Amino acid sequence: VMRTAIQADLNTGAVQYGGHIPEGSLVRFCSPNILETIKHTIEQIQGFRGHSDSAGADAVLLFDCAIRSQSFGSYMRKEIEVINQLWRAPVAGFCSWGEIGRSRGAACGFHNTVISLVLLRDREKINYTANRTYSDEQIEDIVESFPPEISVDELQREIIQLRKQKSRLSHFLHLTSEDLEQERRKSEELLLNILPASIADRLKIGERTIADRFNEVTIVFADLVGFTPLAGSMDADRLVQVLNRLFSSFDELAHKHGVEKIKTIGDAYMAVAGLPEPDARHALRAFRFAVGMLKIIHKFNERYHMDIQLRVGLNSGPVVAGVIGKRKFSYDLWGDAVNIASRMESHGIPGSIHLSDSTFQHLKQLPDLQPRGEIEVKGRGPMQTYLYSLSLDNR
Fold first, then answer.
1. Could you read off the pLDDT of 54-94 as tens digits, one per residue?
2. Is the CB of residue 310 less than 8 Å from the CB of residue 297?
3. Are 239 and 227 in contact (CB under 8 A)?
4. Which CATH number is correct for 209-389, 3.90.420.10, 2.130.10.10, 3.30.70.1230, 1.10.3720.10?
5. Residue ranges of the alpha helices (H) in 305-382?
6. Which end of the chain has fewer beta carbons closer than 10 Å to its terminal beta carbon, N or C?
7. 97, 108 Cβ separation under 8 angstroms
8. Where are the domains of the chain?
9. Are 205 and 258 a contacting pair, CB within 8 Å?
């Protein structure tokens, strides 16, 4: 929004500006249609001239707006010529300092690109007779015609130059479009690495608070046993490479079995089956994922001559899932079922999957699930749990 000085007091140095424009208003200094704007100027001149009298002002402000000359180019010169023919009076044009209308709480800014055109009046000569009048068709001819001094060769050169500019602009627009699409794909992939696809879609359409309750899911906690002392003997690059290989393999496995990775904490891995879309086979999906994790560890040890064990805990139950954070957000789970799954992992046996009774009830038809008996679980008391270990044949 542009506001310009409308009155100055040389004695006090005070400057009066135009009133504030209400927030949300649509402001147009001139029509984007040049012909329409020139027609409007002519109509205003003719109407104002008919009502002028000796008590009027010394000058008439015809137009006052920012960078009008850059917008109209040579057409502004034609507009001034028409004004001279309509009203034979001196015309003065000048640049003035204008104020960029400030938004609430922001400072003002000044610049010198305000173009002002002033028609001067002589009070002793009230009758300003027009040299001629213009019809709409004549005004259109003025705006749309080329300057009479231009030659055919010059016109051809101008057309060729315009075509070259169009070609260059099309090329840059194409490149820009490709770059934008590439950046969009990168952002999309990054978002999907952090959030489930359906949750990312909800964020993109503007949903601010995402929190859902799921009545039945299976949570997976896995921890690399023996990795901490091993990490102490590795340099930083080697440590990150090992974890990256392992966790990337776990990520691929989770995708294969329809399990959603939640997060990694140090050398621990957390995932869940049965959300964000409910799935009646959540326990089986989580169990098969856990078995696959044990197989990955076994092959990893053989290939890299390492001795890393994996301890896995499973528990089924209700949870609340949602997105937290603004600058750095994450998809996380809350609920008693999450705490029990964590206890299953921490009370488990390296190289085995430790299942709570709630998960076992979904999988009791499977072979090789061995009762462990009651164990004392912190915060829960005695709990009946079950174990699964890879046999040599299943590795």
1. 445 566 666 555 545 545 555 666 667 777 766 666 766 66
2. yes
3. no
4. 3.30.70.1230
5. 336-346, 357-363
6. C
7. no
8. 2-145, 148-194, 209-389
9. no
